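User: Let's play a game. I give you a shape written as tokens, and you guess the letters that built it. Ready? Here's round one.
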């Protein structure tokens, strides 16, 4: 069996200093990463409409949107890791960022080898989310969560941010049960009045989009009293396995 080469990590770099953007983007690309850039928060949000990166590196003081607001808006769209670049070296600022929105905090002027090592560590920590490339769950279902898209029996299907966010969590625990309260926390965070009904409604929509028979799902399984499990199916379609060569005498009677 052949294995496709690993996909490069996708980085969204947000900074209003063009010198930082040009130099850091070139350094990251030289290290084999795929980099897109944005000069302010509004441009960054537009970039997210076209697809999700694996990691965001952002200046918390980027213009157009307050850095905190931008980070919260990013987290509303996707469960993406964020490394904050900031000229503020205060320990209180670091603690606030790391507690609320950031995976890591790097003080400007940065030392590239250190920043590169921190990026690698964050990508390793979140690698189980399987956000690189595509996630193939069977002969008829493929997910491209970074693009909020699935392919079902050869047909493209768009996914909402909440649908994609729940699938990120389930893909990260493929084949094992994810408790409903974990899905609530990862999908909606501290949103007011968020509860299990949000997960039920989103899972129902996902089954309508992804399952051949939504009333008898094979990929998105409910484990009563425990949570949900995402299943990967064998590559041989069930229909193909069930319709092998017809023997003499077989047939409806």
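Assistant: Ready! My guess for every position:
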């Amino acid at each position: 069996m052949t294995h496709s080469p690993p996909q490069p990590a996708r980085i969204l770099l947000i900074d209003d200093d063009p010198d930082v953007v040009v130099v850091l983007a070139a350094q990251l690309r030289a290290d084999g990463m795929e980099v897109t850039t944005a000069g302010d928060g509004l441009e960054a949000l537009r970039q997210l409409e076209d697809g999700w990166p694996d990691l965001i590196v952002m200046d918390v003081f980027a213009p157009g949107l307050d850095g905190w607001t931008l980070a919260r808006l990013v987290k509303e769209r996707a469960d993406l890791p964020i490394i904050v670049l900031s000229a503020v070296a205060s320990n209180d600022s670091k603690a606030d960022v790391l507690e609320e929105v950031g995976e890591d905090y790097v003080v400007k002027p940065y030392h590239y080898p250190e920043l590169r090592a921190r990026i690698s560590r964050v990508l390793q920590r979140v690698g189980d989310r399987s956000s690189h490339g595509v996630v193939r769950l069977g002969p008829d279902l493929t997910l491209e969560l970074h693009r909020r898209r699935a392919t079902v029996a050869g047909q493209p299907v768009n996914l909402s941010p909440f649908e994609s966010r729940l699938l990120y969590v389930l893909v990260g625990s493929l084949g094992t049960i994810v408790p409903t309260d974990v899905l609530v926390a990862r999908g909606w965070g501290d949103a007011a009045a968020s509860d299990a009904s949000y997960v039920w409604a989103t899972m129902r929509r996902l089954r309508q989009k992804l399952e051949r028979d939504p009333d008898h799902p094979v990929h998105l399984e409910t484990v009563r009293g425990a949570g949900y499990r995402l299943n990967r199916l064998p590559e041989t379609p069930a229909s193909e396995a069930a319709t092998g060569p017809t023997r003499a005498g077989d047939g409806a009677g």
